[in-house]
Structures are given as structure tokens and as C-alpha cells.
Design a protein that fits this description.
339 residues, alpha/beta, Nucleotidyltransferase, domain 5, five-stranded mixed beta sheet
């Protein structure tokens, strides 16, 4: 008789098809199929994404089970991303999860994608100490930029968010302006390491409370490049590293400034990072420095748990399983889903 809680988890919110197996909180497998088709368009094409999910979902789940060395009969429950995300993509993952749960007669668990990013910090690993409640989590991705007050596993409050572009979107649009491939964020990070971060000065937006704005920076870089090319046709090639370094420093400084203010205002000394942009080296280093300067505990996820993945869905599902918090077959996927 199997006495372990084995969660099969499915993530399909955007353009990555992912499946994982979590056993009693530990990751046994975490498989991701990336969709190369979107690179030629410079962004995610929703219809292409959903079709690719349909092609990838069965092979990815099969590989996750094989890597975990677990038969489908030993899966205790299925967790899946209900939202937020691209509706067509979400439908593929949720439909598979519902069918699997129905066929195996096991519980179904719906997961909020953004909550899962934060809960990735509770994936069990040797010698790892997870955040203690309450803590602040800076959640930064291509679609979201939020400061979240985390009071318990599923008791979360967004206290600050972007009023326009997300930080990840700003990275990608700046990269596009510079002629870099999609997704551009990692390329900006790569070239920023080689540049002078004070070569170009960009102003910080004046946004109240703990909210953010990045549309102005995106426009400022566009104007810098436009005017630079007028004077020198090789402006981008000549100054690429410095532009990337300066733009990245500005984004990171804006993010850290508001997070620091929130932590001091709320007297919280545990801060965490989550989301795709948490893989950015400049942001990771700034978080560590923030913790060192203020004596705060800083929690930064492993790289494999930064971008969209199914392990984070699995750990959220495991926690919900322990709470007997199950879903039903009639729960629909939602492109917009609040905490």
C-alpha cells in the first residue's frame, strides 16, 4: 500500500507545458517543454501556444512519471493551474488534469498560478529554511509585478503592483528596442554584466504607495536609442552593454526601493523573491544586499523554480491536499484570477 502523498501537477498558463511529481513535499521530477515557435514572432501567440500544449501535454506528463519512477496508479491527487494565464493554454492543462483525476478516481486540486510562484519557497529541500509568516514577496514576471503580504499559505494580500507594464514586460520591450531576441530579459541581463550601469541615467517614476510603473522607462530607452542612432548609426552596437546595464539597474532600483519601504513600514524582516524575473542576476544580488544591509532574512528560489514550472503547482497542491482543499470537475479555468 502506498503511504506517500504523490501529487501530479500540471502547469500550462502561458507557453511552457510542464508536469511534475511531488512526493510528501519533495520534487521527484519537474519537466518543462518550451515552445520555440514564439521566438520568430517576438512574443507569445495564444493560438499557437494552445496548439503546442495539446501536442506536448501527454509526452510531458509521461516523462514526469517516468523520471519520478512512479506509476499513475500511485498518484494521490492531481493539481493544475486554473489561472491566471492565456485561456486557451489553461484549458489544455485543466482538461487533462480533470480527465486524469476522473479516470484514476483521485482528488483534483485547482491552483492560482501567482500563489504557486510564492509557495515555491516551501518545496522541501535538505537544509533549506522556508520563509516564516508573515513575509513580503516581490513577485516579478512578464505579466505581473506585485508586492505581496503573505500571512499564511493561502492568505495573501497584494499591497503594491504595477499600474502599467510589468517589470518583465519592460525588460522584453527594451530588449526588442535593442534588436535582441525574444524573450529578451535574459539577454539584457547577460549584456548588463559587461556594461557601466551609471553610463545612462533614467528617471524613476513618481508613483504613490507601494505601486510601480515601468512604461516611462521603456519609452525613455526608446528615445535614447532613436536619438543616438540619428547621431551615430552604430549607437546600439557601441553602447549595448551600457544601455542594458543602465536600464537593468533602473528597474532593479525601482523594485527594491518600494520593497524596502514596505518592509520598514510594516516592520517585516522576512522578504522573498518569486516569478520569472527573479532569475535576473542584478535583482538577486540586490535582494541579497538589501537583506545584508538591514539584517533581514532573504529567500531567493532556485533558478528552476523561477520561471513557470509544475513543481510550484505541485507544492501548492500538496499543501492544499493536507488541508483537504479539493476542487470539482465543474470549476472552469480563468484568464483573470485574483488571490
Amino acid at each position: 500500500m502506498n503511504d506517500k502523498i504523490n501529487i501530479l501537477s500540471i502547469e500550462s498558463s502561458c507557453d511552457d507545458t510542464a508536469a511534475a511529481v511531488i512526493s510528501d513535499g519533495f520534487v521527484l521530477s519537474n519537466v518543462i517543454a518550451n515552445q520555440e515557435i514564439h521566438k520568430q514572432y517576438g512574443g507569445v501567440i495564444p493560438e499557437a501556444a494552445s496548439r503546442a500544449h495539446q501536442a506536448n501535454i501527454i509526452p510531458v506528463v509521461h516523462q514526469a512519471l517516468m523520471k519520478a519512477k512512479i506509476a499513475k496508479e500511485n498518484i494521490t491527487a492531481v493539481a493544475y493551474t486554473r489561472g491566471p494565464g492565456l485561456l486557451g493554454s489553461l484549458l489544455v492543462g485543466s482538461s487533462f488534469a480533470k480527465a486524469f483525476a476522473l479516470a484514476m478516481n483521485i482528488p483534483l486540486i485547482e491552483i492560482n498560478h501567482m500563489q504557486a510562484h510564492i509557495l515555491s519557497h516551501y518545496i522541501l529541500e535538505d537544509e533549506k529554511v522556508p520563509p516564516a509568516f508573515p513575509f513580503l514577496c516581490l513577485t516579478v514576471s512578464g505579466g505581473h509585478t506585485q508586492i505581496v503580504l503573505v500571512k499564511d499559505y493561502f492568505v495573501m494580500e497584494i499591497i503594491g503592483e504595477t499600474t502599467d507594464d510589468a517589470a518583465g514586460e519592460a525588460f522584453d520591450k527594451i530588449a526588442k528596442t535593442l534588436g535582441l531576441p525574444y524573450p529578451g530579459g535574459p539577454f539584457v541581463d547577460k549584456f548588463a554584466k559587461l556594461g557601466n550601469a551609471t553610463r545612462f541615467q533614467f528617471t524613476h517614476p513618481n508613483v504613490p504607495n507601494y505601486d510601480y510603473s515601468f512604461s516611462g522607462l521603456k519609452t525613455a530607452v526608446l528615445y535614447l536609442v532613436r536619438d543616438g542612432i540619428k547621431a551615430d548609426s552604430d549607437f546600439i552596437a557601441t553602447h549595448l552593454n551600457d544601455i542594458c546595464a543602465s536600464a537593468q539597474k533602473t528597474i532593479v532600483d525601482i523594485l527594491i526601493k518600494k520593497l524596502k519601504k514596505a518592509a520598514k513600514d510594516l516592520n517585516i524582516n522576512e522578504i522573498a523573491l518569486a516569478g520569472g524575473v527573479s532569475a535576473n542576476s542584478g535583482l538577486r544580488n540586490a535582494m541579497l544586499q538589501l537583506g545584508a544591509d538591514n539584517g533581514w532574512r532573504v529567500h531567493i528560489p532556485k533558478f528552476e523554480y523561477c520561471t513557470d514550472n509544475a513543481a510550484m503547482i505541485g507544492i501548492a497542491g500538496y499543501i492544499k491536499y493536507l488541508k483537504n482543499d479539493f476542487s470539482t470537475q465543474d470549476v472552469a479555468a480563468k484568464a483573470r484570477l485574483s488571490f
